[in-house]
Amino acid sequence: MMHMTLYWSRYVTLLFDSWRTDSWPSYLLSLVACFLVSAFYQYMEDRRLRFRSLASSSSAAAAAAAAASSPPPASAASPLLLKGGASRLARSARLGAALLFGANSAIGYLLMLAIMSFNGGVFLAIIAGLTVGYYVFRFEDEGVAVVVDNPCACA
Q1: What is the distance in angstroms between the CA of the first residue and the CA of the last residue of the chain?
Q2: In whole angstroms, how large is the CA radius of gyration of the chain?
Q3: What's the short name of a Pfam family annotated to this entry (predicted)?
Q4: Is 36 among the domain residues?
């Protein structure tokens, strides 16, 4: 039977029927795995944001270079398409950013589902992993203005 309130026990089923803990070593190993995956989530979020800022700055630089090399016609204020390799670079950067977003969203939803096991130890391990991961990987982001496109914590 699934718990609907927070409980404290070493017996927990996480994400899959085959991931069950029945002893203290298996429970502690599961808590360490939850901690590491949640810290990895923060690392991936940092990489995604840095890649996105790099992709946007490279596409802006490519657009500026394309605009500087040939003056725009009077009817167009900015180029709609980048020329040659610059547009290919921008497309591959957008694809990479989209793939990182998808992978990070999947990890975030899996962490949310693990917390929905309502086990107190799992909850604390994930929160601790997110906190440590934020401190280690994303603490420098506080001084940099980052535009967040989705306020949802799991995205």
Answers
A1: 30
A2: 22
A3: Ctr
A4: yes
Q: Which of 115, 127, 113, 122 is nearest to 9 (CA)?
A: 122
CA 44 from chain centre, in angstroms, equals: 5
Question: pLDDT tens for residues 61-77?
Answer: 555 555 555 555 555 55
* Residue 65 Cα distances to 37, 71, 81, 91, angstroms: 41, 11, 12, 17
Domain count of the chain? 1
Please give the structure tokens belonging to residue 8.
């404290």
- pTM comes to 0.73
Query: For residue 74, is it within any domain?
Result: no
> What domain range is 125 assigned to?
29-67+83-141
- Please state, in angstroms and rounded to a whole number, the distance separating the CA atoms of residues 66 and 70: 7
Instruction: List alpha helices for 1-155, DSSP H.
Output: 24-69, 84-115, 120-133
Q: Is residue 12 part of a domain?
A: no
Q: Is residue 28 predicted with pLDDT exceeding 70? A: yes
Per-residue confidence (pLDDT) for residue 34, from 0 to 100: 97
- Note whether residue 50 is domain-resident: yes
Angle at 100 between CA 83 and CA 33, to 5 degrees: 165
**pLDDT tens digits, residue range 109-137?**
999 999 999 999 999 999 999 999 999 99
